Amino acid sequence: MKGYFRKRGEKWSFTVDLGRDNQGKRxxxxxxxxxxxxxxxxxxxxxxxxxxxxxxxxxNEMTLEEFIMEYMQSQGKxxxxxxxxxxxxxxxxxxIIPELGKVKIDNLSPAMVQKFYNKKINEEHYxxxxxxxxxxxxxxxxNKAVKWQYIKKNVFQLVDPPRLESKEIKTWSLExxxxxxxxxxxxxxxxxxxxxxYTGMRQGEILGLRWDHCDLKNxxxxxxxxxxxxxxxxxxxxxxxxxxxxxxxxxxxxxDALKKHRVEQNKQKLIAGIxxxxxxxxxCIETGKPINSRNLIRHFKRMIKxxxxxxxxxxxxxxxxATIMLQLGEHPKVVSERLGHSKITVTLDLYSHVIxxxxxxxxxxxxxxxxxxxxx
Length: 376
What we know:
Structural class: mainly alpha
Number of helices: 14
Shape: elongated
Strand order of the largest sheet: 1-2-3
Distance between the termini: 90 Å
């Protein structure tokens, strides 16, 4: 295989024979626009090398918008959870397509992508975490574009997303958590708050918890599903990861509260009669239907004000549970298992602010042990 060179005006071009197509017609590839013959020769040799190795791909005329929509419909919808799919589509429609949608996927450059990220951060003031989500969507999609042989390389692998800044986790102390629970003991969502503080379960895991998942005799609850809010309504789903499916031990106080809650719930069933929609949920509204997370958060914020404790997010109840357990001397591995983290390093990274105090206590205990031995 060799190239044929030709000068047209001030520019050089080359042509390479590609053999014949299925109909027996001769196939050629011509590339032009080179300033010198040497430049054309270098490009020609590179093309021939790619052809010999089977690495050559014809330039793709597909735009980013065309590709990302094809990918999301054929792949994203199959592998993503409904809520995640909706979130990704929102980001694609609001941010990615308006900025990069008309660019051909073959013409995307690292500089172009970096400019897009910088604009989102510096001009539109979106968080680094949010822009990293955009990057993750695009990088994953374009990995598939490479596998589908639409493009040679994934340009999003060549660009670094913005660096995350460490966030300070807000938590309640043991006293604040106790004060809050005492304040809301007579409230309708008390059992939700109690489980959040005592187990570290996520909001969706608590709202998706069924009585069938509770073993009150042996003092455990099993995380097997979550409740998610989507545009199509509330939806029960399996936990995201294998580690999220877990068995959590609960103390007698929580067991007694669950038993009491179930008695009250059975009374509600009798009052509602045939109008009760039984999903076997531990936490539900008076008619048995799942709790809408928006209503729960509104109630949570109101209860915070009334109880006089520091303002935190609902998810921070999970952080509070972990922090308190670590401060009480529980092994990080146990805390990690209760939270459903995939690795203990995730737990240690999240709650590194607790570690210095633990080390201080450990040093003190070691010193005391040494002194005790010396006294003997």
